[in-house]
Automatic annotation (TrEMBL):
This is Luciferase-like monooxygenase. It holds the Pfam family Bac_luciferase. One of its GO terms (cellular component) is cytosol. To bacterial alkanal monooxygenase alpha and beta chains. Residues 4-301 form the Luciferase-like domain. It comes from the Bacteria. GO terms for molecular function: oxidoreductase activity, acting on paired donors, with incorporation or reduction of molecular oxygen. It comes from Ramlibacter cellulosilyticus.
Length: 333
């Protein structure tokens, strides 16, 4: 089983937001040394809990501080942007880190409706997503647009001996079908849905897959997990994430609280959700979490899991990735 990482540059109470960005770069350097396969960064806008707003910029910083780990977006919310400009940005990234760039794209806004309209005022932007993917695939791969297309003869520079690998991201059957149609690798956001719909989306992807960029389907699953030196410590740290998820159910978003400040009384509905969340949570010692990850990978028939971990303390987050690397037998770089 291969392990990779997704980091969202989470905002934390009592810490400057710019520190979260620098912590992401430091985490990428650590994860490369630990032997993780790839390091992905997300895109969100005007969300008080997450300050990772520009993965392509953050990827450049990580590219020049690493040497072997794959670096990617998870993802670029394509309806906000010109596919041609995205292709140019990622070809520049590939020049900085040849053969190490993953271009993960998604259709979700990564924001609320008002913010999405500021990024792209066209209310039909998301309807153009399949066409955008087709155009992006061509420009990233160095292929020309067909006769009659406004982009015919236009090239995305710089060119090199390698090119970014385009990934389709999703948390429903829509992304799975699109990835299958274009023959792209597919990543399911298990951590967003708490696993709901994951098996069905993967089955849909594999069943409808048509050779394109890939000859055979290839998928991974992005899952939330947290390991600590003791199970008790892991559950203590989990309180920050637990509070954030419960609050989100009622539209409350904010920076991550320290575990000691995160505990509050829950009403009946919140308590039901909290228990469900804990029942599914991959939390414990390194060995305990590794066993849960292996079982999930076997159940879903994937050979790569992308792990996302939220903690208020960045050192606890780094320790979690260290413990998982040890428990899963990753080979240090």
């Amino acid at each position: 089983m291969q392990l990779s990482v997704l980091d969202q540059s989470v905002a934390c109470v009592g810490r400057p937001q710019d520190e979260s960005i620098r912590n992401t770069v430091a985490l990428a350097e650590l994860c490369e040394r630990l032997g993780y396969q790839r390091f992905w960064m997300s895109e969100h806008h005007s969300l008080p809990a997450i300050v990772g707003t520009a993965p392509e910029v953050l990827m450049a910083a990580v590219a020049v501080r690493t040497r072997s780990i794959r670096i990617g977006s998870a993802g670029v919310m394509l309806p906000h942007y010109s596919p041609f400009k995205v292709a140019e940005q990622f070809r520049v990234l590939d020049a900085l880190a040849p053969g190490r760039i993953d271009l993960g794209v998604g259709r979700a806004p990564g924001s609320d409706h008002r913010t999405a309209m500021l990024l792209n005022p066209d209310p039909r932007a998301s309807e153009m997503f399949p066409q955008q993917v087709r155009e992006l695939q061509a420009w990233v791969g160095g292929h020309d647009m067909p006769e009659g297309h406004p982009g015919h003869g236009i090239q995305a520079f710089p060119r090199g001996s390698t090119a970014p690998e385009l990934w389709m991201l999703g948390s429903s059957g829509y992304g799975a079908q699109l990835a299958a149609h274009f023959g792209l690798p597919y990543s399911f956001a298990h951590f967003i849905t708490d696993g709901e719909g994951c098996a069905e989306a993967l089955e849909l992807y594999r069943h409808r897959f048509k050779p394109g960029a890939l000859q055979e389907p290839r998928a991974n699953v992005c899952v939330w997990a947290l390991a600590a030196d003791t199970e008790e410590e892991a559950w203590r740290l989990f309180a920050s994430r637990e509070r954030a998820r419960v609050d989100r159910q009622t539209g409350r978003f904010g920076p991550l609280l320290p575990p000691e400040q995160a505990v509050r009384p829950y009403d009946e509905a919140e308590e039901v959700y909290r228990r469900q969340l804990r029942g599914k949570a991959m939390v414990g010692t390194g060995e305990q979490v590794a066993q849960k990850l292996r079982a999930l990978a076997e159940e879903l028939e994937v050979d790569e899991l992308v792990v996302i971990t939220w903690t208020w303390d960045p050192f606890a987050q780094r320790r979690s990735y260290e413990l998982l690397a040890q428990a899963c037998g990753l080979q240090p770089a």
